[in-house]
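Problem: given the chain below (295 residues), write out its structure.
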Amino acid sequence: MTARLISGSEIARQIREELAAETARLKEEFQVVPGLVTILVGENPASLSYVTAKQKTAKTLGFYSIQDTRPANISEGELLALIEQYNRDPKIHGILVQLPLPKQINETKVLYAIDPKKDVDGFHPVNVGKMVIGEADYLPCTPAGIQQLLIRSGVKIDGAEVVVVGRSNIVGKPIANILLQKQPGANATVTICHTGTKEMASHTRRADILIVAAGKPRAITAEMVKEGAVVIDVGVNRIGKTLDGKALLCGDVDFDAVKEKAGMITPVPGGVGPMTITMLMANTLKAAKLAAGIE
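Solution.
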């Protein structure tokens, strides 16, 4: 049996079409334009690539968007003042500060400085707390994307055994919290595995849905996966270069072996990755509606 492929690229495209239509409706009926600012400090090539992709997507959807690039030697105080400027700007509904930041800046202080109502990454403690109690305004983008992949692929989550490999604040912990909520698209029994887990395979083999964010290339082998399981691979690992010089990528799952055993699986690239920026846009649109009091 070869697994059915879950295409994040295709599902992201579908969601973006929905977002573009809703953006057009907001403009026409309410004269509301979702606004997003991405703040980049320094000239890290990977960070520049990420914010460029975010800005391109925002403009394609019809958002008002600003790319604010600052020098690497900016002081922490100057960056905090800039964030406060955008906190007060009524045209901006979402603020994203691209990480990592230079050593002279405390990343936690910066994330905490963003108005929770404009925290479209979903990282502010207020938004994390609301997520945990099941009253989230904004879900963190990658976990929200994973949930949408499952829902839109027809995966039964209610009552499922979900195993999450990885406990990061960006993926592991939030996706576990999201899927255990007593809500539609959730209500699963969730186990989290990590570097301290003994006999990890005994846990992963129980999973109806296995979500892997381990940060280690091909860490999950076919022997660790239940027959017919749904496998979501969050990992993106550079393992070399192609003949034309492009980065050669692989996930945290041994894709070639596991796809012969799983029922459904995400590829790398083209799986979870395309969903992250899409859910950032969904959060920004929601922020604009909340700010305007639109249902």
